[in-house]
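Protocol step 4 of 5: obtain the predicted structure for the target chain.
Materials: sequence only (see below). No template structures provided, no constraints applied. The aim of this step is simply to have a reference model before the mutagenesis design in step 5. Sequence pasted as it appears in the construct record:
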Amino acid sequence: MDLTLFLSSVFTLTLVMDPLGNMPLFVSTLSVVPEERRRAVIMRELFVALAIMMFFLLFGKYIVSALALDLTAMTVAGGIVLFVIALQMIFPGANSHFADNPGGEPFIVPLAIPLVAGPSVLTMVLVFSMQEPGKLVHWAGVIGVSWLINAVILGGLAGRISKLLGQKGLLAMEKLMGMILVTISVQMIMNGLKKFILG
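Step 4 output (structure tokens):
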């Protein structure tokens, strides 16, 4: 895997994870958690999300194989999911944020799943593993770097960035990321359709 593809994959997966868009959701969900516990809870949830992503990288192709799906279908499906997520980022509605917390310390849901390791992220991981199954170490590196970027933003900088950008700044940043993600999702759909037509 060349450096350009590696960096492009990291950039795409990081965008899909949407750490800036998740910051206000993390802050609001953790508002009921004592301040001294918040960093530990965030890191625990991030490690759970990392474990889930690695599981899908290693065993997702067997799940897909059992369901008799192929890479073309996964690529188009992943593009559609990303497109929907991107539209929610650009046009946030009442149901676009699913981080409602019934009270108490969150565990796995909603921080690890679906905010970090959501359907779009897991679909991307599956597409990665099925594109070049012989390069799992490289894809694991992509996941690891993207996860590390998320950990730095959500675990170390969330409070500072939220205060610096403010609510409107975070919203503007999320919309910008959504626009980029729309382009990536359309490209994924076009690539999948192209492979289907040529196949």
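Step 4 remarks: Helices lie at 3-17, 19-29, 35-66, 71-90, 111-116, 119-131, 136-198. The chain has one domain: 3-198.
Proceed to step 5.
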